[in-house]
What does this fold into?
Amino acid sequence: AIRAKLIDDGGERLKAKPIVDEDAGAKLFVALPCASHIVVENESADALEQAEQYLIEMMRSFDYENQV
It folds into this structure.
């Protein structure tokens, strides 16, 4: 789940800071540059490679021939 939290940085307007709920059950792959924009705990330098491998495994394990 993605939500926003209003942050008061002393300016005229409040700013919305996106927050990703890592306990919602979705797989998250967050690259280091992205971690400066959203609040997460699992950012990594190889997030894109991890995401690619995860998608490859998911597609290989799917039974395309015997769908109901």
Remarks:
- The chain has two helices and two strands.
- Helices lie at 32-35, 47-61.
